Amino acid sequence: MNILQSSDSRMKAIKENTILSFNSAAKFPIDFIEFDVQVTKDDCPVIFHDDFIFSEENGTVFEKRVTELSLEEFLCFGPQREAGKQGKSLLRKTKDGKILNWNVETDDSFCTLAETFQKVDPSLGFNIELKFDDHIVYQQDHLIHVLQVILQVVSEYAKDRPIIFSSFHPDAAQLVRKLQNTYPVFFLTNGGTQVYYDVRRNSLEEAIKVCMEGGLQGIVSEVKGVFGNPGAMPRIKESKLSLLTYGKLNNVPEAVCMQHLMGIDGVIVDFVQEISHAVDDMIIKPLNEGLREGDEETETKSKLQFSQQELSFLLKLIPELIQH
């Protein structure tokens, strides 16, 4: 993720949602990369997070909705692949409404979903987020069309690559499950950390219902939603659902290790190098040492081991901590 207003240079190191960022992440021991897919008006799935692209011409800032651009128009923004060709300026709007130049240390051009399949290490799994605007009410026919366009590309290029589909849009998540049964589908949720008109998006309990009703395989929650409601964990496990998390706290090694103790199946992070190394040091190496020693008590020696009573206390404490 690029957070241009951040004082942390790592948030501005490599352009997000690009082939370069994916292959840079692939150098580390990860299972999947996560990216956002939208479909242009001429039916090409492209990789881009925001609903709008911002640019500047003759001193005037303008915005264009990604899904209202043709592929050719979309690719005109930012760095160009052709030598000597100048792309249109690229700006970004922050959550507090500021418009900033989208400057990163190592830039890269926009890309399509097909190119991503072709140019990223084939052993690396894809968590394909199906991106829709929170402020638009989509008709089912439109959702089905968009999903079929994406599925066509996946069918053509996926081969043996592991794939997960995920979406914050409950109907889109359930529809993509109906349209195919090859790949697991996860429902994305803020876990109650934000409130939406659609109540299905407002809690982990509602997320469980969406998954059970639609035959989905798992939930991807904002990590604060899980830490703030640890009681949902047993219900998720009882429902035989997988649980992944995302959010800024996942860039903190101790928060990732706490989730490992809680039985969470995976984390989505920005600082891939730092977190993968921390997980190796705090989880994998102690486990491997225990296996080598053949010592049944070795697990208790790991600094990650807590009694059930201690873990319960920490989980009760976390919701208080994350509010500050």
UniProtKB/TrEMBL annotation:
Domain GP-PDE: from-to ranges: 1-279
Pfam families: GDPD
Keyword Hydrolase set for record: yes
PROSITE patterns the record matches: GP_PDE
Gene3D superfamilies reported for this sequence: Phosphatidylinositol (PI) phosphodiesterase
UniProt GO BP: glycerol metabolic process; glycerophospholipid catabolic process
Keyword Hydrolase: yes
EC number(s) on file: 3.1.4.46
SUPFAM superfamilies to which the protein is assigned, alphabetical: PLC-like phosphodiesterases
Catalyzed reaction equations: a sn-glycero-3-phosphodiester + H2O = an alcohol + sn-glycerol 3-phosphate + H(+)
GO molecular function: glycerophosphodiester phosphodiesterase activity
Keywords: Glycerol metabolism, Hydrolase
Protein family per UniProt: Belongs to the glycerophosphoryl diester phosphodiesterase family.
Protein name as it appears in the record: glycerophosphodiester phosphodiesterase
Organism: Gossypium klotzschianum
Lineage: Eukaryota, Viridiplantae, Streptophyta, Embryophyta, Tracheophyta
